[in-house]
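tokens incoming
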């Protein structure tokens, strides 16, 4: 018998209708809410890996689809609108009465960092944090990451064009590197590790970090 129950629900926000897909742990000790980036949805390999792996460790995972994505649009709106959508789903995430870790990949990671303290997030999980646009390291977004104000974990691909692990500044956060991974944590066939191993490194790193929080 599976330890995970899954269901989806829609939530009305000031930015439109969002959708939550819950992967509930039987004996949850916290909720991890993770949203997608600006160019994809919750089918991203890292989000799917966390949803599949974390409930067995007492973590309920909520995959969050922003209103623009639910509406079928292809381009994400401005960051302020993403923040509005995220704020709108927060009461539902906090509904079970458990600590909520705010997370996301790429643009979703930025949203989590910008709003964490305001919303009372227990921590932030930043997957593929877009430290800078590709090829433009001078346009750093490190202030968002460093300003999260809560315990933060960055999980970054070793070959992420939006910021390699060694490019990140020192700060009050932890960092797990997924060797060879690109912005979507895909690893090339010539890499010394396979795709499943790469996702295993990601999931194990998140599990260990979450265990240190409570």
């Amino acid at each position: 018998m599976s330890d995970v129950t899954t269901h989806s629900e829609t939530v009305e926000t000031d930015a439109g209708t969002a959708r939550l897909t819950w992967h509930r742990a039987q004996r949850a000790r916290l909720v991890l809410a993770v949203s997608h980036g600006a160019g994809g949805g919750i089918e991203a390999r890292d989000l799917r890996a966390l949803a599949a792996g974390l409930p067995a460790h007492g973590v309920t995972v909520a995959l969050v689809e922003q209103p623009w994505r639910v509406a079928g649009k292809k381009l994400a709106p401005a960051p302020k609108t993403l923040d509005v959508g995220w704020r709108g789903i927060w009461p539902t995430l906090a509904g079970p009465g458990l600590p909520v870790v705010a997370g996301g990949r790429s643009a979703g990671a930025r949203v989590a960092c910008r709003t964490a303290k305001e919303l009372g997030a227990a921590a932030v999980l930043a997957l593929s944090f877009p430290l800078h646009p590709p090829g433009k390291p001078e346009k750093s977004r490190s202030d968002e990451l460093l300003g999260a104000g809560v315990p933060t974990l960055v999980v970054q691909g070793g070959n992420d064009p939006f910021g390699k692990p060694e490019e990140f500044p020192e700060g009050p956060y932890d960092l797990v590197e997924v060797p060879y991974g690109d912005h979507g944590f895909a690893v090339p066939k010539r890499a010394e590790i396979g795709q499943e191993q790469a996702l295993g490194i990601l999931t194990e790193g998140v599990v260990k970090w979450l265990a240190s929080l409570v």
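note: The helical segments are 45-53, 67-70, 79-94, 107-119, 142-146, 195-213.
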